[in-house]
Write a structure and sequence with these properties.
Protein name: Nuclease SbcCD subunit D
Mean pLDDT: 91
Keywords: DNA recombination, DNA replication, Endonuclease, Exonuclease, Hydrolase, Nuclease
Number of helices: 11
CATH topology of the largest domain: Purple Acid Phosphatase, chain A, domain 2
Structural class: alpha/beta
Domain Nuclease SbcCD subunit D C-terminal: 267-353
Helix content: 25-40%
Shape: globular
Low-confidence stretches: none
Number of domains: 3
Radius of gyration: 23 Å
Largest sheet: 6 strands, mixed
Family: Belongs to the SbcD family.
CATH class of the largest domain: Alpha Beta
Organism: Actinacidiphila bryophytorum
Length: 386
Amino acid sequence: MRLLHTSDWHLGRSLHRVSLLDAQRAFLDHLVATVRDRDVDAVLVAGDIYDRAVPPLAAVELYDGALHALAELGVPTVMISGNHDSARRLGVGAGLMGRAGVHLRTDPATCDRPVVLHDTHGDVAVYGLPYLEPALVRDELGAERADHPAVLGAAADRVRADLATRPAGTRSVVLAHAFVTGAAPCDSERDITAGGVPSVPATLFDGIDYTALGHLHGCQALTERIRYSGSPLAYSFSEEHHRKSMWLVDLGAGGEITAERVDTPVPRRLARLRGRLADLLADPAHDKHTGAWVEAVLTDPVRPYEPMAALAERFPHILSLGFEPEGRVDDPAASYARRLAGRSDQQIAEDFVGHVRGSAPDAHEQRVLREAFDAVRAAAAAGERD
C-alpha cells in the first residue's frame, strides 16, 4: 500500500505579514497531482491543518477545495487535529465526510477505532491520535499523570489492544501530533510543554508498522518506521535550510517500509544575512539572494540612517531587519525577542522571578508556575472544544 504522509499545513499563516495563501494553494495542487500521478492509495495528514482555532475564510476555502479534489480521486484521506487546530470545529461533519472517504480523527475517545483500508495483501488499520492536551484527556484515557508521555502512552496502549483483536497479518499505521525525543525543532512551532515534559519517547510507538508524525516543521526520520513529514512551506527564517517535502511510503505485505521524499513547491527561498550595511549592499556574494525573502541583521557600531529603505533597493523582498552592534554583547537595548528565542514559557517565567527577586525559584515554586501554565493551556484548549 502506498501512503502519502504530510502535516502542518497551517492554512492561513503568513510570513512576517506576507500572505502565503497562494503558496499554500500551489502546495495543495501539488499534493493532489502527486496523489494522482504516483498511484497513492491513501493520504495521511498528521495535524495542524489550520494555523489557528478560528481560521480565516480564505483558509477554509483552500481546505474545502483540497478535500473535494481528493474525494474526486477516490483516494481515502485520514486526518487528525493538531495543537493549532480547534478539534471540535475541525471535526464538524466528520461522519458525513467519512462516507466520501475523508476520515477525520479529532476525538481522543476514538483513538482506538481505526480506518481499515485494504490492498491485495490484506487489511491496514490506520489509527488517528489527535493532539492530546494532557490536562483535558488524562481522565478520559486513564493516564497516570497529566503530561504528554502519560496520555500519549495511554492512547498508544489502546491502539495496541485493538490491534491485538484484529486478524493475524493486519498491518498498522498511526498518525500522531507530538514532539518525539530526538527530533529537531525550529522557531515556528508552538511550545506544547505540559507537566514539565514537552516530549515523548519513540518507544511509545513500538509494534506499529508506520508512525506518521506531525508538529515539528523539519522533515526527518527518527527510525525507518517513525517519521515527521515537516511543514510543506517555511514558516520562519529558522527553516532557511529545510528541504520541504512529503513522504511517499510503501507499506509491504509483511509491514516492510520503503520511503521516498517528494519535494514541495518553493514560493521563494529564504536568506539570513548578517554584517555591516555597506557590506550587505556591495558584496557580490549576496547577488544570489536578490530574489529571496531576506532577514538581515546589521552589525554596524552605530545604527545606520534608514537602513531598510537602502536594503530594499538591493533585496526587494526583505521582510525582517535586526540590529546587533559589533562589540556590544551586553547591550541593554539588544532585541528582547532574541534573548527569549528558544526558551519555553516556563523558563521565561523562572528567569523573570530570578531577575526580580535575585534568586531562582525553588522546586515548589517551579511546580506552582508549571501548574499555572498547564491550567491556562488547558482552559484555552477547553474553550476551543466548547
